[in-house]
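WARN no homologs supplied; continuing
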Amino acid sequence: MTGLGETLGSGAMTNSFESIKSADTILIIGSNTTENHPVIGSFIKERKKKGNCTLIVCDPRKIEMAKFADIYIRQKAGSDVALLNGLMHMIIRDGLHAPDFIEKNVNNFEKLKETVAKYTPKYVSEIAGVAPELIEDAARAYAKGPNSAIFYTMGITQHLNGTNNVRSVANLALLCGMLGRPGTGVNPLRGQNNVQGACDTGCLPEVLPGYRKVGLPATQQKVKDVWGTDLPATPGLSVVEMMHAAGEGKIKGMYIMGENSMVTEPDSDHVRHSLKKLEFLVVQDIFLTETAEFAHVVLPAASWGEKDGTFTNTCRSVQRVRKAVDSPGEARPDWEILLAVGKRLGAPWNDMYSPETIFNEIGKIAPAYAGITYGRLEGGALPWPCPTCDHPGTPILYTTGFPRGKADFSPCDWEKPEEWPTQEYPFIATTGRVLYHYHSGSMTRRSAPGEFIKEMYIEINPADAKALNIQDGEKIKVTSRRGEVCAAAKITDRVPAGTLFLPFHFSEASANILTSAKIDPVSKTPGFKVNAVKVEKAV
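OK structure emitted
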């Protein structure tokens, strides 16, 4: 998707938080917003309560946001492409699309029209388990807007066909011209506070800062011009691919920073095998995590309140972070540790570096950051792209069209997930977060809020619990093709019949023992959200 795809590929929101106040319709799909992104969730709830705003929520699990929805669609896990194609079918059928916008800004409309032609509300209903009239109501509300915004997160991306899910979301926004204005946009919400900044600065296996593809001659020349050296032109491996390679003995050493792979990566037993097989493992973190216990060397790092620097948040705003307290013991800021390690390895680096000089280096190779300086950030956050020092920043993308010309519709057909229920494994298990814990729990399980939920539980629908003679609070065992986990049953209609939900924060009962390490071939993201399992009472 030329233009639009560049931003969505980086995971960045097209619009700002402020833009939410102008939305006439908000579509949330695959995002437990109030628990995973509570600040943005509060903005959306405030808009719903104060304004004339229609809220559409699409999620297999009855999340809190469903209580506020005008239209709640409970699609089957893994049916998102079919559902989104169904919305587009109905919008085209009833002439609710934006032909002028499409003619000016988007290629490939006829191909999209051809692809979604079979996705009638009745056909989608059979796949997604959704009443046809709900599909029609949602399609009308989104298309008529007049300003409609989409918010999504890992419920869309963490599938083996996650790339097609994202493409379908983008197709819907393009079809209705819902880009480039306040209250519109495609808004993927990032999972941690500086994921966006990490991606922007090259922490992805195939790009350098500014999303410059490593294999392109122009990238290689830019590296030589800015850094005076050559870099390999071959893309690296994703995290899951690295674990596979370590397990096969192809990677001998690994350096892990701020990542608790033993809790967060799929197929935990395989991760354990891979880490044990490494000849040398360095872990740099603020606590001795479950992953750090496998390390040959542990480097104690400073936490966010103990260092200076910047964070780039989910709507592309670059913000200053200022040291509030000193670090305990031997803990040091990450950049100081990396500088010291690099010098020990022979890098010709001097001691004149600082968080500010390092930030200035980013702008030399990432054009979107070129106009952002520490001095300017003293006046508040600046959203990229901000190419020059007199540029005000860009809170809303594509206000004047797409910078590289027209975007492309990328039509996708729905494909049944690889791990669909079978006679042996009749349930779908999906993993996720809860409000009181943050990712692997390395911080929240050491803090007071974590006391609200001290251990893993398994949500199961009342009908399934009755059929299996399971009582609330009773220990049950969930088994996939990779392993098994036991925890207390939590009987609730938050999950539909045939689906289980497991929070993944608890290493002693790791939900990710169940999940597959197979990945989306394009994004390299594993399929945490659809895993075939069986359920029985724990012995």
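DSSP finds 19 helices and 21 strands in the chain.
OK
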